[in-house]
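Running log. JK asked me to keep both predictions on one page so they can be read side by side. First protein, sequence followed by its tokens:
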Amino acid sequence: MKAVVEVFGWLLVLQGIGGLLNTLFGWWGWAHGLLVVNVLPFLDGYEIFAAVVIGVLGFALLAVAGSVAKASGRTEEGR
């Protein structure tokens, strides 16, 4: 469970950072179709805000993954 939440968290963080950088600077023209903020038509005009929200949700998932590991009594050394 922890690994799945961490993977989704990192994916959301990367989507948020990538979407924010691509919207602000247009660096990654080749990745336009890979970023969620560019694919969803209802986000037109709100790409920056959506990218920030996606990134924050990714960090929240990473925090949840860390708290799940602490709550279960497991650490990285004691898997």
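And the second, directly underneath as requested:
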Amino acid sequence: MPWKYLYPNTVATETETNTKFDVKIGRVPSRMDDVELTPCGSAKQKFDAVSLAKFRAEFWETFQKERRRSAMRNLVDNKFGGDTLQASIAIQNITKKPVSHRTIQAWLMEPGARSSRFCPEWALVALKAFVDAPENIDYLASCGRISAGTSSYMPYSSAVDVKYGVKYATDAIASDEKRQREWSDTSLTSLPHMISQFENKTERHFEHLDMHAHAMWRALREATDFEDFRRRVLDEVKDKEIGDTIVRKTRRAIEQGTDEFANNGEFTE
């Protein structure tokens, strides 16, 4: 896709030339002539009329796709409480086509994301038709009530399934790929430092888990009932965290040469 654009922003980037354009869109844009593109004042490259016409045609296609994504997002969020499963059922009810809730989540992903897929016009038309149908008023009202009632305590697995699964998976892929690039691009002189950082982070994580396991094991041996068990675990974890904070502050003072360690070991009276 030659354009980076999020509706309804007023700036877009043409990716092949990396040029930013000011975007002016008519109130009810229905054709390409309703869009005006002007290179930003900071743009170094000049374009002739043929190039600008080509850019506008390509942007118009991107704009339509992005507007559909935005419209789909508004319907899913405002009419179905963000529940893509209910939205997929609604679209299937109208079109009789198999549309999964993960497909809808992919339609809602921002352009450029690995999982982003363009929302087809027929899906948006179908969802609008379902929302506008008088016989679905009570159903949509129940979706709103369910969303309002469960937003504060929806189980994590349910929220991931119907709202965030594609986004979370996409973020995980991007995180792993970023880490792979960092390790692949590391020079031999930087490699020991990166390995040390990784080892320290892993060790701190294991120490954190060990602290909680030790607290629970001690409480299991000594507690008289559940409330006593709960109190012992929380107290020991809190005590360990306070001790660790003291160690971190002391280490920082030693490494930075501050507080009692500011005089290179020489004490003044």
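Observation for JK regarding the second prediction: Helices lie at 49-80, 84-95, 101-108, 121-132, 137-150, 156-184, 191-222, 226-256.
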